[in-house]
Specification:
With 130 residues, the protein is α/β, with parallel strands linked by helices. 16% of the residues lie in helices and 40% in strands. The chain has a four-stranded mixed sheet with strand order 1-4-3-2, with helices on one face. It starts with a strand and ends in a 5-residue tail after the last strand.
């Protein structure tokens, strides 16, 4: 077995696709509308689905907003230069909600950004993991 994808429900698919592709640098892998169900599935990621875990963005056409559940944590992305990545995200209109620095009770350097729906995305400095 292996992880295939994580799914997020989004209120505005185009806004979310812009964030994940233009701000976080993922690629659009596939997208399909389901008119009879009134929803669209869009898959984005850093590699092909057969090789890597990807993100499924689900847009229910009649829903523009979701309350974030208390059980949701975050999506984590490994990065080589966390400060440069945060600067690039800011320059593209992204929202850094926790600046880069060591995590509490550890040495791993992390930062957090928010997507347009308020979902947290953790950035982890790969060279600091421990």
């Amino acid at each position: 077995m292996r992880m295939l994808h994580t799914m997020l429900r989004v209120g505005d698919l185009e806004r979310s696709l812009t964030f994940y592709t233009e701000v976080l640098g993922m690629r659009m892998l596939r997208r399909k509308d389901y008119p009879s169900g009134r929803f669209t599935l869009a898959f984005v990621g850093y590699g092909e689905e057969q090789d890597t875990t990807v993100l499924e963005l689900t847009h229910n056409w009649d829903t523009t907003h979701y309350d974030l559940g208390a059980g949701y944590g975050h999506i984590a992305l490994g990065v080589e230069d966390i400060q440069s990545v945060c600067d690039a995200i800011r320059s593209k209109g992204g929202k850094v909600v926790r600046e880069p620095g060591p995590m509490k009770h550890g040495n791993t350097v992390i930062a957090f950004v928010e997507d347009p729906d308020g979902y947290k995305v953790e950035l982890i400095q790969l060279s600091s993991r421990g």
